[in-house]
UniProtKB/TrEMBL annotation:
GO cellular component: plasma membrane
UniProt main location, coarse: membrane
Residue ranges crossing the lipid bilayer per the database entry: 44-61, 73-92, 98-118, 125-144, 150-171, 192-215, 244-263, 284-312, 324-344
Quaternary data: The complex is composed of two ATP-binding proteins (LsrA), two transmembrane proteins (LsrC and LsrD) and a solute-binding protein (LsrB).
Gene Ontology molecular functions: transmembrane transporter activity
Matches recorded under Pfam families: BPD_transp_2
Location relative to the cell: Cell membrane
Protein name: Autoinducer 2 import system permease protein LsrC
Region feature (Disordered): 1-28
Entry function: Part of the ABC transporter complex LsrABCD involved in autoinducer 2 (AI-2) import. Probably responsible for the translocation of the substrate across the membrane.
Organism this protein belongs to: Zafaria cholistanensis
Length: 360
């Protein structure tokens, strides 16, 4: 009998170490990798919080998820989703735009003015005019930030008041009401498809398009590189000023779209429309996993963050919780999101240093 040892494994190797991985083994490893990737998603905590919030509220008030209740939740989140998506693009570049509420107000009142002057104007054209108007206002922010080299926080705080002042001068005491607009324009916020309001479907399409642009195109990925390390991005040859300018322009365009939809969604628009929305928009993006320090996060996460914040308001109202606590909870969420992001960044940096030390 031949007793030759045919085991060619190195000494100390575990049984099966030198054998090819079977399909079942690869499938199991793939499942573990997929689970690990899922658990690392920045959006997972906010999705979990949203699901738990809806479930708890439903258990206490079943009408919360009635067909009308679901429609109201979606409508309440629609405008904020679009604004948060645009804000996410700017924050990813390590900037911020505090003027979005004022841009929305100007465009919303402008929309009312258009319908008052030309009631028969096609809705699609009004949407394009609103987007273009918002893009112009956003481009002013982008030019000031990139040319003056002044922090965006300061610039957009100034344009917040400038745009708000322009709206006050333009509108004065004038308000446009639901009866001043065409019925088909107001129907955008009333009509549904498969139970989902039309303007919400439009918002979802817009968020998806921006998300694809950010993840699937070179300019979109450049924005992440700029936010991660602006100086390194310049050394690498990226057109930093151009990309930042376009980020502000895109944010303004989305705020313009939100302004037109606001005029469809709500009963009146005037000089105070959009006041105070800017902080809610920034909060939605940050809570949705967009790092306030730039370079990470996603447009989809920002949109989910917007849905969470608007759902919190609806949920606590349904549970008859005082409005003060609604604001306090939003504040706690913002602080928690910033702290968690900072801790995660420090842990990632520590792991990277350890890995580099081992490879030396």
């Amino acid at each position: 009998m031949d007793n030759t040892n045919t085991d060619t494994r190195p000494a100390g190797a575990q049984p099966g170490a030198g054998r090819p991985r079977t399909a079942a083994t690869r499938k199991g490893a793939g499942g573990k990798d997929a689970l690990a990737s899922l658990l690392k998603l920045r959006e997972l905590p906010v999705i979990t919080a949203l699901v738990l919030l809806v479930a708890i509220t439903y258990l206490n008030n079943p009408l919360f998820l009635s067909p009308q209740g679901v429609k109201d939740l979606l409508l309440n989140a629609t405008i904020m989703m679009i604004l948060a998506a645009g804000q996410a693009v700017v924050i990813i570049t390590r900037n911020v735009d505090l003027s979005v509420g004022s841009i929305l107000g100007l465009v919303a009142f402008g929309t009312g003015s258009i319908f008052a002057a030309a009631p028969g104007m096609p809705i699609a054209l009004v949407l394009l005019i609103g987007i273009a108007f918002g893009a112009v206002l956003g481009s002013v922010n982008g030019l000031l930030v990139t040319l003056a080299k002044v922090p965006a926080l300061v610039i957009t705080l100034g344009t917040l008041y400038v745009y708000r002042g322009l709206n006050n001068v333009w509108a004065g005491g004038t308000q446009y009401f639901a009866g001043d607009r065409p019925a088909e324009f107001g129907a955008l916020s009333v009509d549904t498809f498969l139970g989902i309001p039309l303007i919400t479907l439009l918002a979802i399409a817009v968020v998806a398009a921006v998300a694809i642009y950010m993840a699937g195109t070179r300019p979109g990925r450049d924005l992440y590189a700029i936010g991660s390390e602006p100086d390194a991005a310049k050394l690498f040859g990226l057109p930093v000023s151009k990309r930042v300018f376009l980020a502000f322009l895109a944010n303004g365009a989305l705020a313009g779209l939100a302004g037109v939809l606001y005029a469809s969604r709500f009963n009146s628009v005037g000089a105070t429309t959009g006041t105070g929305m800017e902080l809610d928009v920034v909060a939605a993006a940050v809570v949705g996993g967009v790092a306030i320090f730039g370079g990470s996060g996603s447009v989809v996460g920002a949109a989910i963050g917007a849905m969470l914040l608007t759902t919190i308001t609806s949920s606590l109202t349904a549970l008859r919780v005082d409005k003060f606590w609604q604001q306090a909870i939003v504040g706690v969420l913002i602080l928690a999101a910033i702290v968690i992001d900072r801790v995660a960044s420090l842990r990632s940096a520590k792991k990277l240093r350890i890995s580099e030390a081992r490879n030396v």
